[in-house]
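Design job #97: recover the sequence.
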């Protein structure tokens, strides 16, 4: 498919800056998880086409809605990438039982599948639950 764009290079550059600025945070979240990259590209492309049709004025309606935060993505990545349960919960090896429960509650609020739409939150919540159980069992011994 070929599209003829009749706006100046300056308008294209200005449009790119405007669009990238408006979707920067959301695209970082999507890129961090690997989910939604194609949708983001499609949205950007259709925004450029709409901008051309609107005489160089960028639309605001094509920006996808992302219902999760960077903090949720970082927590999911930490749970996935660390093999040590202390590191998964962000704790030191000399922590107390109360520290484990506090860290678990904080992360559970972020990642509970009923509360989080972040990609991978369900699997991360299972890892969180297993890490908490394992650490609490160590205190029982």
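Job complete. Output follows.
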């Amino acid at each position: 498919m070929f599209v003829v764009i009749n706006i100046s290079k300056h308008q294209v550059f200005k449009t790119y800056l405007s669009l990238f600025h408006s979707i920067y945070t959301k695209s970082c979240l999507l890129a961090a998880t690997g989910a939604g990259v194609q949708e983001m590209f499609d949205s950007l492309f259709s925004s450029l086409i709409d901008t051309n049709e609107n005489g160089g004025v960028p639309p605001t309606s094509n920006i996808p809605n992302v219902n999760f935060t960077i903090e949720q993505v970082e927590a999911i990545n930490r749970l996935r990438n660390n093999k040590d349960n202390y590191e998964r919960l962000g704790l030191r090896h000399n922590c107390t039982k109360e520290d484990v429960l506090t860290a678990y509650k904080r992360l559970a609020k972020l990642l509970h599948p009923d509360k989080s739409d972040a990609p991978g939150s369900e699997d991360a919540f299972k890892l969180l639950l297993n890490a908490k159980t394992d650490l609490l069992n160590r205190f029982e011994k």
